Amino acid sequence: MLKDVSMKTRLQDDVNHLIDEQVVNWPLARQNYDGLKEVKTRSLELLACTEMRVQFNPGRIKSSAAKVDAKSIKERKCFLCQENLPPEQNSVLFKDYLILVNPFPIFPRHLTIPHVQHTDQLISGRISDMMMLARELPDFVIFYNGPKCGASAPDHFHFQAGNKGFMPIEEEFLFHPRKSLLTDRNGARVFSIENYLRKTLVFEGENLDEIESLFSKVYRFLDAIQKDEEEPMLNILCSWENGFWRLFVFPRRGHRPRQFFARGEAQIVLSPASVDFGGVLITPREEDFNKLDEHLVKDIFEQVTLFDSDWPLVKRIFKKLI
Ligand SMILES: [Zn+2]
Fold it and tell me: Where are the domains of the chain?
């Protein structure tokens, strides 16, 4: 146990040093982390315990508007492969993952964590990696964007991470009046949150294997109802605190809302991913930042979160386990 604690401290320390070094020595990172201080934010209070912060962040245009169709992906050099990383970019190795400073930040401390090999963005078999990363980086929330759920490199497996205390969901969950316990067994609990704009499952506990096994039950169910997808559409946030993990899982039915593809006035360049589901909506264009209101935010989430009709079926998976 003691060994675990010292390992955790060491990786977190190494990563803190990496960030401090990169924002000094890498001009692109320095400029963009400095620029973050100018980013505009405003807050929409949509329902009880449901805040959405809107962030106008022009540096994210490449990611939000990324072309992720097979042809575009094939025609570009993979920006997460080691041989294509900028010469100024340094890394810290954790298992088979490179921990990198994200040069286009949303968070004041923002990491990209690609696998060392060029391999598809598929979460199956990697939940335990995600949980171990969260335990070794206790200052961060680790997140996963599925290949059609916000990942701008669907051809190269990667997590991202952002400093804790940034996304409203971290605190809202603790006090939400409509969270309900679906199951509690072997050191793992599963909750749902109702009336929260997006369908949300929360897995928490100290038992890694049990959480992984409970997650795989949802994964298999969603996989069965989304047969045409390479993996069920989802986003995941994962953190470690006080000796246990917490994972927010957002099952989805849509990639980008119709406003993304609209022309002229009706267009909104917003491509929902983990951070948006965590309660911070990223708009790279100022007109979208000004336009977003309660009505539009509700409409956008309705289009991308799981169908109402599938939600009771997901929750029933856990009720059967009690
Ligand atoms: Zn690659």
Answer: 2-319
Taking the centre of ligand 1 as the mean of its atom positions, its distance from the CA of residue 135, in whole angstroms, is 26
State pLDDT tens for residues 93-147: 999 999 999 999 999 999 999 999 999 999 999 999 999 999 999 999 999 999 9
- pTM score, two decimals? 0.94
Collapsing DSSP states into helix, strand and coil, what is residue 260?
helix
State in Å: Cα 12 to ligand 1 middle: 25
Q: Measured in angstroms, how far is the CA atom of residue 132 from the centroid of ligand 1?
A: 22
Condensed to tens digits (0 to 9), the pLDDT of residues 218-257 reads 999 999 999 889 999 999 999 999 999 999 999 999 999 9
CATH 3.30.428.70 fits 2-319, yes or no: yes
> How far apart are the CA of 73 and the centre of ligand 1, in A?
10
Give distance in angstroms: CA of 79 to centre of ligand 1: 6
DSSP 41-92: EEEEEEETTEEEEEEE-GGGHHHHT---SHHHHHHS--TTSGGGS-TT---E
